[in-house]
Amino acid sequence: MSQPLPDDELGRSFESRSALSSDLGSLTQSVFVTGSPDGLNVEARVVPVEREHEESGAQAFEVRLEISGVRLGVRAARPGLTTIEVNERFEEEGHEDVLVAFIPDHLGFDLAPQRLVDAHPRIPAFLDPEVRYNTTIFGDDDRGVFRDTSYPWSAIGRCETNLGPFSGVMIGPQHMLTCNHGIDWTPPPGFDADWLTFTPSYYDGDAPFGSTYATHVYYVKKDNNNGISDGDEGQFDYTVLVLNDRIGERTGWFGTRRYTDDWDTNPNW
Fold it and tell me: What domain range includes position 11?
């Protein structure tokens, strides 16, 4: 198993490029309502947004859905998750074609995000030093806020469960990698874990690639959802979600490689 590329070699191995095409595509957005199976009626209207667009010659639109037959005041629960426990290592040999990364022609490629915005820290200034929070930052906090939609930033997005928001990354056309502690392992009736939604390139409330939700979750060990990393939870703080649609074909994906112990002391981490 080869080592990851050091930072000073990345620029020589991956060259930035603009989008190769500007074809129009399609988005998927789910709206959950409560009603009777045969009593819902949906009408859609497209309304221009009267605000100057950041892209020259582009126009933003509101797609307004009018849904009749909805039972007002009744919450509509999102579907829960089916779980698959992983108890053996995956062998990469013979599966290389489905493990590689994918960059769509309609997206540019740049290893450094170009659209940066000012950050507003939201982590409490004073934390208990005796507690290992899931928000722990090791070393200096040199993170930045970006709104770039080029690859690979297109494949990073916002996960949300009833425990709150966190991030995830696309690793296949329909598979997303994220943390274990963000999953609500308290299942609703008929499911093994509670709902999760994913919005790639989420920023300021918008969804340039649409939004979807998860149907299945692969895990090695379930987090106990107590808000801290105790025991060996940090070692197994990852899950892979199967999404409801192939949103990765719009965002691209990172691909997959099996971890090797030779990487433990590598400075990339």
Answer: 1-31+77-269
Over the stretch 229-265, which tens digit does the pLDDT of each residue have?
788 888 889 999 999 999 999 999 999 887 777 777 7
DSSP E strand boundaries for 16-112: 41-48, 61-68, 82-85
- The rounded Cα 17 to chain-centroid distance in angstroms is 23
pLDDT at 6 over 70: no
Query: Is pLDDT larger for residue 110 or for residue 132?
Result: 110
Average confidence (pLDDT) over 190-218: 94
**Judgement on whether residues 41 and 143 belong to the same structural domain of the protein:** no
- Which phi and psi angles does 240 have, rounded to 5°? -120, 125
Task: Tell whether 96 and 54 lie within a shared domain.
Answer: no
**Among 10, 45, 74, residue at a domain's last position:** 74
Residue 267 reports pLDDT greater than 60: yes
Question: For all residues of the chain together, what is the average pLDDT?
Answer: 86
162 plus 219 within the same structural domain: yes
Give the pLDDT score at 101. 92
Peptide bond into 208 cis (omega under 30): no
Provide the domain count of the chain.
Answer: 2
Q: Are 48 and 181 in the same domain?
A: no
Domain boundary among 44, 74, 104: 74
- With CA atoms as reference, report the closest residue to 201 among 159, 240, 162, 141: 159
**Beta pairing partners, 170:** 176
Distances in Å between the alpha carbon of 237 and those of 36, 243, 263? 40, 19, 17
